[in-house]
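WARN retry 2 of 3 for item q-0093 after timeout on previous attempt; input resubmitted unchanged.
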Amino acid sequence: MDDNTGTSFLRQYELSIEKTDRFSQDEIAPILMGLYGEVGSIMATSKKFYREKKAYAGHRAAVEEEFGDAFWYLSALCRRLSINMGSLFESTCNAAPAKHDILGANTAKSSVSKELDAALIDLGCATAQLLKDREDISSLQKEVSNVARLYCNALKLTGLDFCTIVEGNLTKTLGRFSTPDLAKLEDFDAVFTLDEQLPRYFEIHIIQRKSGQTYLKWNDVFIGDPLTDNINKPDGYRFHDVFHMAHAAVLHWSPTFRALIKRKRKSDAATDRDQDGGRAIVVEEGLTAWLFSCAQGLDNFEGHDGVSFDVLKTIQKFVHGYEVERCPLKLWEDAILQGYAVFRKLKENNGGIVIGDRTNRTISYRPIGD
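OK item q-0093 returned
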């Protein structure tokens, strides 16, 4: 079959996405619950758009994401039921979804109508039936085709592009769960001279004095301003610059750290203004403060081996429009977990040395004097 056909397109999706499926192949109930939850999210998102109209500016992107997540669970269910997804969609939707021409989605007018509401309710009911019959593999195999048909019908009524949804889900999911190839990750400094690059290796001394203020020292020179927690109940925020260092080492991005060490990319006016300027610094500082608030209820990620997908998606929204948005979510997770591991050491010891290694995208801790 030609590579541009829907069957081939979906086969490529399945081959790529399978590695992100962390459930065992004999687990069906979690997949069914996940599918039911995503269908519910599609309905909730449509309801928000219907209620808030233009005030719900993120409608299109949100519905695309929810349809994509539901498709992930459909794919996972098909694997467990030994159903060929390409054949399934070809038989249930009259034609396999061909790339850039899915069920007339490009020509359908996007709207939330009574017809769409009815289609989504039908899809929800069909998905609920899957849950009821979760122990009967034969029934599930028959009912999946109905769910796929109703999914296609609802998608058609939204006017969204099937390929955009599937490819968006693939990009998002691989970025979240796949370990990135460090050699293939983008280096935002590659075209700039060394004096405008974040250092490949750095050691920052963070010293806390009797006053409770912390100071940063790089190459025996004090940088930045002294910090305190600036809150009634001390929480260690005086050490928060470590998160900017983690961003610099792991993500190769930190407008705040660039400003501290005077490594802004001034040779290119657009980059200096748009990527290293005041607004970018405010975005990073705001993101860091928000994540710190989240971390307080999570023991500063102690004992955690992952970061909530919802948190990572919020971060993605924070940095939209900046170069770092091209970093996979898995890299953000690494930066957060590494950064908080060093933060906990700094807080425990009232200071220390933060070691950043951009080549290996790591950040680590060493006590002062060692």
